[in-house]
């Protein structure tokens, strides 16, 4: 399959150096808002990349659920493949791609678990069926058939205690605390804009990178 001629020409949307804010989180929030207003179907979707103990990289799409001045928060099963890899190597990367605004944001840093209180707050805000699925799914592990999960779910759904589902200890949030954030804007002729923020001595240093 030859895809050499499959390409999109990006429109001109220049990033001027003097327009780059001192705080990358401020810029990310602005771009995220633009992505939502543009009609991106999943603006919070991000590719999370982790590394195994054998130094094999692994990527998957997860959803951003919170952003604060510390970092980017998502939730998952701590015993999943990504959870096990994070426990062995706390360095990870995120990538947001918003084709409608022709932008991407790359984030690198260290991942740490959020507090139990944060995990509880999000878990109990989820719909009952989502909470059930978090309880019954042995995420990333082989199962004999889908019917096993469906039967376990139906058992919970028919229970009178459906609203009393407790967050499992193996399910909760992670926060990626960045030390590097890169903003990429598509430009005509592939002469894209790339603005990199590096955290040095608790201050962000801004660099323009060649595309």
Q: Mind sketching the topology for me?
A:
Layout: H1 24-38, E1 45-51, E2 57-63, E3 66-67, E4 72-77, H2 81-88, E5 91-98, E6 103-113, H3 116-123, H4 128-136, H5 146-157, E7 171-185, E8 193-200, E9 203-209
Structural notes for this entry:
By secondary structure, the chain is an alpha+beta fold. Helix content is 25%, strand content 34%. The chain has helices spanning 24-38, 81-88, 116-123, 128-136, 146-157, and strands at residues 45-51, 57-63, 66-67, 72-77, 91-98, 103-113, 171-185, 193-200, 203-209. Strands 1, 2, 3, 4, 5, 6, 7, 8 and 9 form a nine-stranded antiparallel β-sheet that branches. β1 and β2 (57-63) form a beta hairpin. α4 crosses α5 (146-157). The radius of gyration is 20 Å and the shape is globular. The mean pLDDT is 92.
Number of helices: 5
How many strands appear in the DSSP assignment?
Answer: 9
Proportion of residues in helical segments: 10-25%
From the helix content, strand content and strand pairing, which structural class follows? alpha+beta
Overall 3D geometry? globular
Strand content: 25-35%
Low-confidence stretches: none
Largest sheet, in brief, is: 9 strands, antiparallel
Radius of gyration: 20 Å
**Elements, N to C (H/E):** HEEEEHEEHHHEEE
Give the N-terminus to C-terminus distance in angstroms. 27 Å
Overall pLDDT level? 92
Question: What distinguishing features does this structure have?
Answer:
5 helices; 9-stranded antiparallel β-sheet; single chain; alpha+beta
Summarize this structure briefly.
With 211 residues, this protein is of the alpha+beta class.
């Amino acid at each position: 399959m030859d895809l050499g001629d499959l390409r999109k020409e990006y429109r001109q949307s220049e990033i001027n150096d003097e327009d780059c804010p001192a705080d990358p989180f401020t810029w990310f929030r602005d771009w995220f808002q633009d992505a939502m207003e543009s009609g991106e179907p999943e603006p919070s979707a991000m590719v999370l990349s982790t590394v195994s103990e054998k130094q094999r990289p692994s990527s998957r799409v997860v959803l951003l659920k919170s952003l604060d001045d510390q970092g980017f928060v998502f939730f998952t099963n701590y015993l999943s493949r990504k959870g096990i890899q994070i426990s062995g190597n706390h360095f990870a990367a995120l990538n947001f791609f918003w084709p409608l605004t022709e932008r991407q944001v790359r984030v690198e840093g260290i991942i740490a678990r959020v507090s139990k209180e944060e995990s509880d707050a999000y878990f109990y805000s989820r719909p009952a069926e989502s909470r059930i699925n978090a309880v019954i799914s042995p995420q990333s592990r082989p199962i004999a058939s889908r019917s096993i999960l469906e039967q376990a779910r139906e058992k919970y759904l028919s229970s009178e205690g459906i609203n009393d589902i407790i967050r499992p200890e193996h399910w909760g949030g992670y926060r990626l605390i960045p030390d590097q954030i890169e903003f990429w804007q598509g430009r005509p002729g592939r002469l894209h804009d790339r603005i990199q923020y590096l955290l040095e001595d608790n201050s962000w240093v801004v660099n323009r990178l060649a595309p």
